[in-house]
Amino acid sequence: MKKVFPSSFYNLVTLIGTAIASISFGLILFLVLLESVSASPKPYMGIIAFVILPAIMIAGLIVLVLGIMREHRRERAGKPHGLHLPKVDLNNPKHRRAAVLFGGGTILLLLLSAFGSFKAYEATDSDTFCGETCHTVMEPEFTAYQFSPHARVGCVQCHIGSGADWFVRSKISGSYQVYAVLFDKYPRPIPTPIENLRPAQETCEQCHWPKHFFNEKLHTNKYFLSDEGNTKWELDLLMKIGGGNVEAGPTSGIHWHMNIAHEVKYIAVDTRRQVIPWVSSRTPDGVETIYRSTENDIPEDSLKKSFTRRMDCLDCHNRPSHIYNPPAPSVNHVMALGWIDPTLPDVKSVSVQALNTDYSTKQGGLDSIRLFIKDYYESTYPDVASSRPIAIDSVVTNVQRIYSRNFFPEMKVSWKKFPDNIGHMYYPGCFRCHDGKHVSDDGKVLSRDCNTCHTILAQHFENDSLRISLGGVAYQHPVDIGDSWKEMNCSDCHNSQ
Ligand code: HEC
Ligand code: HEC
Ligand code: HEC
Ligand code: HEC
Ligand code: HEC
Ligand code: HEC
Fold first, then answer.
1. Which of 3, 156, 217, 292 has the fewest beta carbons closer than 10 A?
2. Which residues have C-beta within 8 Å of that of residue 189, sequence separation ≥ 6?
3. What are the pLDDT digits (tens) for 27-58?
């Protein structure tokens, strides 16, 4: 046999290394080929094709080099070198059987590893992979996602979408993420990829297109005050979600911002886009109105340098899937369902307090919640504690459930870390612009009127008469705080609840 490589190449160790390296290389080629013909690209396939298999390939190459070095050393030491492979004689039935067995085995092994890498390739695209493989890391996002309206929309449909350039980007960042998790180099909480999110036109609008918005939507909210009797009250809001479609009538309403003909642009001074000193609105006939904040005015020259963003879905719906609820609305919700009994004294405020404490681990939080609630009733209302143990147990279970769905101390994730822009109660949201303090040069104010975005159809306090009007009733703040709710942002008080 003519030797193509230097003689030191021919030793068992080097040959094994070569086999490992070339099989991995073949599998990488196979995956890349598979990916190029596949109709639905699998973003995290990069982890196998560009991280795991190359690692095995490099290991193979190292073995190969080690083999050569060892062989050199043997040569220098005068030991006989060269590979002494057994002579195979196919006329010998024993040899023949061994060769068939060995050949068959190799082919089977190759087929199996091709099948295995194909399966792995499929798996990287699944939501279980995204959400569960890196369990603690992604637990908050995955948990919130499972209880969101998008629980059946794949992670990749919002985070990757289709198209070649995003596909390549996601591969590079996907490979980096695997490295970060393996070596514990990731930040807690995981920062929001706000700059790198795909434009909404390519993700959200594939399923919800702006023309679809033309009706209104009723919210019936039930609340319980933090007093001893948990005073109940109700609020009916008719959300004006129209505005997206000229053919469906006048284009007014919340989705007016999204009407393609309109252009709303803004400048934010922080990366989370929470402080917005400058807003511009251009109507279809080209008239531009610029609103500036009277509180956070920025100088003209730094304005020119700033990045101007055109508003899209994500400026309002930034948490469509990873919703971490604040304690107060979560407790109101389960009380309205009757799972927490509203006749238990102080139950609203005790539950909210239990959830508002910082705990360092999830299990620690769950245990402390139980102790806190039980202790509270045993010390403050001993007869309630002894006569209604089942109702109190149910408070514990429900508060614990709220805690485990919305708080992730190990990852430092909770509602406080991720502002949701959809309303104005717990975070600045719409009031980042509509705070009544954004004024144009000719004195027009970006409206904060309570009936601009929703009509307050009805408000009803327990033990009080029902106030109702199709044209909208004047809002009455549930506890007397004077006129401060008219001047301050709601979130100035409510983001600490
Ligand atoms: C309906 C669209 C949608 C789906 C489905 C979705 N995400 Fe997200 N995700 C987003 C948006 C939008 C953001 C940015 C949030 C922001 O700007 O505050 C985000 C942010 C994140 C973040 C950054 C941390 C954070 O909470 O801001 C992670 C991690 C994440 N998503 C993981 C996942 C995983 C894992 C899945 C699947 C189990 C998934 N996402 C499904 C839209 C989605
Ligand atoms: C693959 C399709 C798909 C994509 C992509 C998608 N959604 Fe959805 N979305 C849905 C479905 C399905 C529902 C549930 C509809 C229902 O409950 O009637 C939904 C519901 C919603 C709702 C109503 C939630 C509620 O509380 O009723 C909003 C708001 C929403 N999506 C916004 C978004 C935004 C913003 C994005 C982009 C980040 C997005 N969606 C991406 C399919 C999608
Ligand atoms: C980046 C700034 C900004 C944010 C954030 C914002 N808006 Fe607006 N909004 C505007 C501008 C600008 C106008 C147009 C005012 C004008 O020139 O008449 C407007 C107008 C409106 C209108 C009136 C549309 C019509 O029919 O004429 C509604 C309703 C509205 N916004 C609802 C909302 C809601 C709800 C939110 C929060 C989910 C929100 N906006 C968040 C800037 C913003
Ligand atoms: C100015 C802020 C704003 C923008 C921009 C915006 N939305 Fe909305 N959207 C809202 C509000 C507010 C609601 C009502 C929320 C509620 O009922 O809790 C809503 C409701 C929805 C709903 C639920 C409708 C229903 O019938 O229940 C969907 C779906 C939706 N938006 C998708 C989108 C998509 C897709 C885009 C981008 C094309 C978009 N929105 C842009 C503020 C906005
Ligand atoms: C720029 C639009 C806009 C204006 C102006 C506005 N709201 Fe709202 N409001 C919203 C949106 C959007 C929601 C729904 C948020 C959600 O779906 O969680 C909301 C929700 C609410 C809620 C229910 C909050 C909760 O989570 O329980 C109350 C109460 C409320 N608004 C009161 C008011 C009052 C009082 C005013 C006048 C000072 C006002 N709103 C002005 C857009 C607006
Ligand atoms: C000066 C502080 C302050 C401001 C500003 C304020 N609130 Fe409140 N709000 C309170 C207090 C205190 C309560 C009572 C909380 C309780 O009993 O649990 C409350 C209760 C509420 C509740 C019932 C909450 C629940 O979980 O049951 C709603 C809804 C509400 N406020 C809406 C608003 C809206 C909308 C605005 C802005 C237009 C606003 N508030 C501005 C202090 C404030």
1. 3
2. 140, 408, 411, 412, 413, 417, 418
3. 888 888 887 777 665 656 666 777 778 889 99
